[in-house]
# Entry
Amino acid sequence: MILPIDPANKLSFKRFIKDGDLVIVYERHDTMKAVKVSEDGVLQNRFGAFKHSEWIGKPFGSKVLSNKGAFVYLLAPTPELWTLVLSHRTQILYIADISFVVMYLEIVPGCLVLESGTGSGSLTTSLARAVASTGHVYTFDFHEQRAASAREDFEKTGLSSLVTVGVRDIQGEGFPDEFCGRADSVFLDLPQPWLAIPSAGKMLKPDGVLCSFSPCIEQVQRSCEALKSQFTDIRTFEVLLRTYEVRQKILESCPVNEGDSIERPPRKRRQGSAEGSNGTECSSSPTVVIRPSGEARGHTGYLTFARLKCFV
# Structure
């Protein structure tokens, strides 16, 4: 469970793995998967067979061995990791945009948040953690099957008490009237968000904040035009994130001759050779190497924020 809740509605983060828990199995930095633990379960991968029974009782973060002596790590299913392993029913928001959205929407525990559309539920998961344990997220998707799949995911990750999924065409029908004047924040991820902005304005409390995510600048322009009548403090951001890979490599370093004025830097070890170019023996040692990731994402979309005007 991403966010276990006890009967008193207080957060109670579990530290030890139990039968039925959801675990993120970390194989390497770019290979992770979500696995539901069962007493008789076995995970088979390229590293061998891992018995679930040997996981139960271990703390999250444990290193466990396969029948071949290889290992994986068992991580707690945080929203950040869930975003990396969930099923992509639609294009999703990633950590850089999600963290920006949660901050600028001013979401804190107890908030009521409206979202459209749900999609794969990546953002919804982080919104649920932000409002826990006394708030609630109401998310809507016009596609019935996507909504049903999202419900299953929220049940699986233990968030169903914090998230309600509805099937509704927000662009055409707007948000349900029952939320008028009750929402602290509204998030829109729609092809034509300007059609839903008038309804969003009715849902927000005075001084409430709206965010619209759009991949194209033309969508942003039309949305800003629609926002001007009801909203103020309109801002648009593009969040670009550059990640770095941290790896451990075996590097070779050779002793310096007395006549050398400059020490030669460590070099990658050449297979089958433990000598330098001058015949001296070289030593090898593990070294941490940091370099930009070759899979860095560029533009994902534009985030437009606006605050509802207070009319006295």
